[in-house]
Each structure stands twice: as structure tokens, then as C-alpha cells.
Design a protein that fits this description.
Layout: H1 3-29, E1 35-39, H2 49-60, E2 70-75, E3 86-92, H3 102-121, H4 132-145, E4 154-159, H5 168-174, E5 193-198, E6 206-207, E7 215-216, H6 225-234, E8 243-246
Parallel strand pairs: 1-2, 1-4, 4-5, 5-8
Antiparallel strand pairs: 2-3, 6-7
Helix pairs in contact: 2-3
């Protein structure tokens, strides 16, 4: 073999080794994605657990959740839990592990997961308390504990109208009270984590129970309140550009 061929072989070898090393390093930096679904149990929320299951389905259909990914579902707490969120369920996301399994097997496992979640979702009752901030904060902490970083594509799906009433400073800010200091709570570090809020417009305003007098379940909204709600909540995150709002829960086919 002449010197020219030896040089070519060496260059190719170094290039292949360098590419392999780069891919190995890149793979080492990429962590599996995880998702937490949060349900606001407030009685003012029009959507129920059927929306929570649909959010879980939305998460399972996400291109980010794959091998070693997890789906965790929580619900807002109340006085009985010191406003701490309630753990509902956690699952390892079903994926195609062997060619012989086939996509139908994976789809069947996902439907079993959603059926199990639906059964668990029907247990916690509604409440008058809406400690939404604490529930989202704990959801982000759960993702951090799972190893989520800027390369993980982790996300939180929140089913709520964002009408916080457990944190008095946030509530004042939502009501437009300047003494609420706009947010009044420490910002949540969501760097690398997307927060998607669904159901902002799905509310129950007035309740009629038989012959009983009408009972207001939430404050009436003027034209400014929806915009103010979004502004206040975006100010509660270190990466407000990663916080998005959907007026309604996703409607997907079962």
C-alpha cells in the first residue's frame, strides 16, 4: 500500500471515529422526555376527568415521549392535604420494543393505560380550593427529579381556568389589585420545560341546585380579565415563552 492510500485510510478512520464519538457524546446528553398532567379540581371548572384522560392521550401521541419516558397525573389539593397536590397515577409510556410485538400491541397497551387512568381519575372529588400555583410548581419539580433539562423536551399539561384562590397574592394580581405586586410568588424555573394550559375558557359561572337559590361558582370575567390572567401567570415562570394557553381541552377520538 503506497503512502497516499495510507493517508486516505487514516483520514477516513479518524473521521469515522470522530463521528462515532460525537454521536456517543450527543446521546449521553439527551435524556428521555417526561410529562406531568395536572387537573384543577375546583368546582368552577366545567371540564371533568374526561378532559384529563384526553390530555393524557395527547401526551402519549406526542413525538417526544418514547423509550424510558413516564406519564404522571396529579390533581390540585385542598385543606386536607395542606394544598399540596394529590398523586393520581404514574406510568411508563408504552413503546414498540420488539419487531414481533407490532404497532397494534403498543396501541392496545396505551388504551389499557388510559382505561386504568380513567378509573383512577373518578375517585378524587371536586373542591372549592384552587392551589394551582403549588400544583404546577410540584409538577416541574417532579420533572427535574426525573432528569429533565433543556435537551429533554419535557412538558406539563395543566387542565385549569387559572383562577388561583389559595395564594392570596396571586389572587389579588388576577383581580387587578396593584397591591398584589403582579405575581407575589417566587417564579418557577421552567427552563427547558413547556407548560401548556388547557381549558382556560371552560368555566361554570352560576349553579342552580333544584329550588335552591343561584350560587356563583366563580367571578364574572370582563374583557380585560382573560388577558390579565395570562399576563400574571406568564410572569410566574423563568421562561414565559414556554408557557402557552389553549381556551379549550383537546377533543380527540378515542
Amino acid at each position: 500500500m503506497n503512502k497516499q492510500k495510507v493517508v486516505v485510510v487514516l483520514v477516513l478512520s479518524v473521521g469515522i471515529f470522530g463521528l462515532g464519538f460525537w454521536r456517543w457524546k450527543a446521546a449521553g446528553k439527551t435524556r428521555p422526555a417526561h410529562c406531568v398532567v395536572v387537573f384543577d379540581r375546583s368546582k368552577s371548572i366545567a371540564s371533568g376527568w374526561e378532559c384529563t384522560v384526553q390530555l393524557a392521550r395527547y401526551a402519549l401521541n406526542s413525538p417526544y415521549l418514547g423509550r424510558n419516558s413516564t406519564l404522571t397525573v396529579t390533581a390540585t389539593g385542598d385543606a386536607s392535604t395542606a394544598n399540596e397536590p394529590i398523586f393520581v397515577a404514574s406510568y411508563e409510556v408504552p413503546v414498540l420494543r420488539r419487531v414481533l410485538e407490532g404497532r397494534n400491541t403498543t396501541a392496545s397497551k396505551r388504551e389499557e393505560l388510559l382505561a386504568d387512568l380513567k378509573a383512577k381519575c373518578e375517585l378524587p372529588c371536586r373542591t372549592k380550593t384552587s392551589p394551582i400555583y403549588l400544583a404546577i410548581k410540584r409538577a416541574v419539580e417532579q420533572l427535574r427529579a426525573a432528569g429533565c433539562d433543556e435537551n429533554s423536551n419535557c412538558f406539563v399539561l395543566v387542565q385549569t381556568d387559572l383562577e388561583e384562590n389559595a395564594n392570596s397574592e396571586i389572587k389579588r394580581a388576577l383581580d387587578g389589585d396593584a397591591t398584589g405586586n403582579k405575581s407575589g410568588a417566587p417564579v418557577i424555573n421552567n427552563d427547558g420545560i413547556n407548560i401548556i394550559v388547557s381549558g382556560l375558557a371552560e368555566k361554570l359561572g352560576v349553579s342552580y341546585a333544584g329550588a335552591a337559590a343561584a350560587r356563583s361558582l366563580t367571578n364574572s370575567r370582563d374583557q380585560q380579565r382573560p388577558d390579565r390572567i395570562q399576563q400574571v401567570w406568564q410572569g410566574l415562570f423563568t421562561s414565559p415563552n414556554r408557557v402557552t394557553f389553549q381556551p379549550y381541552c383537546p377533543r380527540t377520538k378515542d
